[in-house]
What does this fold into?
Amino acid sequence: MALRSVLTGVGSYLPERVVTNAELAKRVDTSDEWIVERTGIRERHIAADDQRTSDLACEASVKALQAAGRDAKDIDLVIVATATPDLTFPATAARVQAELGVTQGAAFDLQAVCSGFVFALATADNFLVRGQAKAALVIGAETFSRIVDWEDRGTCVLFGDGAGAVVIEAREDAGDRGVISTFLRTDGRMHDLLYVDGGPSQTQSVGKLKMVGNAVFRQAVEHISGAMLEACARANVALDEVDWFVPHQANQRILDGVSRKLGIDVDKVVSTVALHGNTSAASVPLALDVATRDGRIKKGDLVLMEALGGGLTWGAALVRV
Ligand code: UT7
It folds into this structure.
């Protein structure tokens, strides 16, 4: 029997400190009204000064392990999708591995910015179905508050910190559960639409986030829709067979634009953007966790996750949970 990658547990974590739109309006020339109308975001969470991306990742991972009924000794692959690593190297995943007490297999970071979780899930799936790992922790974790330009109203209102994680396991007896199809794409020609203007090789600094917001917006609606259709086509599944859509949470207007374009019932789209803003690679597993814990997503449901981010990168993953 062929191996399949089955999602057995999900968890997430948001730092304690909440920053409301009203609080941001005291720092930059913006308003709660503008932010809500143009993005749907009401508040975001910001990591404490001594909280690193790896700390957020560990908090989410512990909850995912609990949900899966697994512990660290069962895990033999750790992938952390992040654009805000603790340090330039080693990988944040190496610290997460050690903190959790995972002592076997590989651990590495994956950099695809906001698409990172979908890229990491597809990567883990390939390891698992080829028998190269038995149980993986796939984590999206970010501290974007550290790279946001807090003087730039065009970007600082959008982002927040957080983490989400899933346990996925290789199984021969999965039936129709598991990762069914994935679709990943990068087009580096759009590098300059969304980037950080610092890094070890080019500037020897960390840098700040830069975005051509309206251009990214247009690309997002087009390519997220395309990725969703492609993931479904690869699995020979019609869009209306999907039970839940779990998109990257960047902007409510992007979620609505994609739903309109594809004729999707908005009640099937999980939206958590109001509560944490854009948490980059963390946002898909954060939303997945919320909708799993509140009982919307049930075992056996067909879930389509999708994202677009810097690179530009985009992708989708169709999973029967
Ligand atoms: O996660 C990776 C993917 N990232 C995204 O998906 C983000 C995609 N982009 C977006 O979500 C939207 O483009 C934004 C929310 C960033 C901006 O919304 P927009 O409707 O595209 O606005 P805009 O950039 O075209 O700006 C419209 C106006 C400008 O003023 P003028 O030039 O028309 O006078 C901006 O200066 O809104 C102004 N503006 C603001 N006003 C109040 C920009 N940011 C703010 C702000 N508060 N925070």
